Amino acid sequence: MKKIIAIILAAVLALSLLTSCQNTDNGGINVCLSSEPDTLDPALNSAVDGATLVSHLFSGLAKWSQDENGNLIIVADAAKELVSPVENADGTVTYTYTLRDGLKWSDGQDVKASDFVFAWNRAASFDLGADYGYMFDVVDGYNEVSESKESGEVDSDGEPIYVAANPDAKLNVVADDSAKTIAVTLYNAVAYWNELLAFPVYFPVREDIVTNESWATDPATYICNGAYTIDTWKHNSIITLKKNGNYVDADTVKMEYINFYLEDDANNMLANFKKGDWQLIDDVPTNEISTLKTEYPDEFVVAGQIGTYYVCWNINEEILPASKITEDLVANEKARQEIRNAISLLFDRNYIVEEIGQAGQVPASSFVAMGMTDSDGSEFYKNANKSAGNSYVGYYDVSADAMESNIKAALEVLDKYYTKGADGKYTDFPTMTYLYNTSEGHKAIGEYLAAALAQYGITMNLENQEWNTFLNTRKEGQYSIARNGWLADYNDPICFLDMWITNSGNNDVQYGKGATASLAMYNLDLTAYGYDIKVENGTWAETYDVLISKIKTETNNTNRMAMMHIAEDLLMETGCICPLYFYTDIYMIDDSVTGFFSNPLGYKYFMYCEIK
Description:
Distance between the termini: 47 Å
CATH topology of the largest domain: Dipeptide-binding Protein, domain 3
Oligomer: single chain
C-alpha cells in the first residue's frame, strides 16, 4: 500500500511540475516582474510593475512606441493624432483630440469621449486620493477640483479630517460624444504634455464599471480597452493576460497571451529562467550578477534608465536624544536636518554600486536623476547645488577619495548631539528600523547601511515587507527610515520634484504633514524671476508647495529650470532624502524572444513579442 501511495504521489508531483508553468507553444510568453501588484486601477497605481500591466490593458490618447530605427517615441493611440494647442485670449491653451473609429471596451461597448472626461476628473479628485492625482495640475480647473478643507472632525490620532472643498468642481475638459472629440484646456503650454497623455493615470475608465470599488481585482469585472484583457488572476501566483479581440489594433498584437508570474524571490526567478520556463525576469540575485554577465552575455541586460535609488526618512521621526530636545521646535528640526545630512555622508556609494549593484549604476549626489536636461542643454544633475561653489557636482562629494573627509565631517556633526562611550561609539542615538521590500538587492543594501552605522554605535534594524504592504506602510508614514526609488514619469525634472508637495500621494517623507506641518522655518525668494514672492520662515505648504505651483505655470524655460534647482535645494536641505545611486535597469530576457522593448520609465512591452 505504501508503495502504491508513493507511486501516486510521484505521479501527482510530476504532473504539478509539468503544469506549474503555462505552455508557451501556442503564442504566449512567461515573464516575472515582481510580486502581487498593489492595484491595477490605472488611476491608483503608482508602481512600475503595475504600470507595465496597465499599459497592456488600456489604451490612452497616446502611447510609447518605437520608430523604424528602434528609437522610443510618443505616438497617438486612441486619438487620431497628437495635435498642437490653440492659445486662448487669457493665456490658457486648448488641445482638441478626435477619437479613432472602432474603439471598443473589452465587453464590446463603444469607447466614448466622455469616458476620458470622467476618468480624468475621477483621477484628479480629492475624494479618490490618487497618488498621481497631482499630475493633472497643469489642467485648468485642477486647483478647484483638488482643494480640500477641514470637515470639523478628527481621526483617531486627533488629526483633522479633510474633505473636498468644491465637490462639484470639474476639470476644464469637454467631451462631444457625437463628434468623438475631447477638448482639454491647460493653464499654459506644457512641453511634456504628450508624455502625460501616455501615462497610466490619464487612461480612460468607464463610470458604470468603477462604481464597484473592487472592480480592478477580479477578471470578471475588469473591463478595459487595451491590447489585452485579464483572463485569469490567481492572487499571489499568476496573472494571465489574453489578447483582446475588441482592441482596435488587435491585428498588430502578436503575442496571444502573457503570463505574469507574481514572485519577489530573485533566486526562484533565476531558477525558472535557467530552466527555460520564464522568458523574462526583472530581478536577479546580487551575488550572481558577475557570473551572469559572463555566462549569459546576450541575455543579461543592463539598460539605461532615468531614476534614483535613495533612502528616505520620515520627517516626523524623532532622532534627537532626549537631552537635546528643546522647547524650540524649529531649532529641533534644524538639528535633525543637520543629523540626517551627516548620516548621508557615512555611506560609501561606490561600494554599493561596485560590490552590490554591479550593473553600471552611478553614485548619486543629488535627487533629480542623470539624463534630465537643463535649460542650457547640459545635464540638470551636473548643475545641482552649483550656487554653493563646491569643487564637486551635487550636494556632497561621492568620489571614492572623499570618503575619509565625508566621515570626518559627519562625525563632527554627530559629536554635537550624541554622547560617546569608552569605545568611541555613540550611546544615545535612538534605535531605528530600516524598511525595505522583498529583494535580495534591497536586503544587501540595507545590511550594508546598517553595518556602516553600527561601527559608530548607531543601531538600525531591518524590516522586510512584501511589495504592496511595503508601499502602503511607507505611504502612510508608518516607518522611521526606508528604501525608496523613483523613476522618471516623463522627461522633465519636475517629475522628481512635484511629488513632494504636501498633498501628493507620493510624499512618503510626510513633508508638511503631522508634527512638522506647522513648522515655520523654510525660506523662498522668487523676486529674481518676476514674482512678488518672498517668504521667510514659512511652512512647507507656504514655500515648497507655492514654488512647485509657480514652476508649473512658468513659461520662461531658463527661469523654470532655475526655480527647479531651488526646489531641489529645499528638499536636500531637509536631509530627508539620501540619494545612493542613479539607476540602471537589470533584467534577463531569453534570446528566443524578439519584438520586446522597454522605456526609460521601466515599463516593459510584450504585445509585439514573438518566440523563435
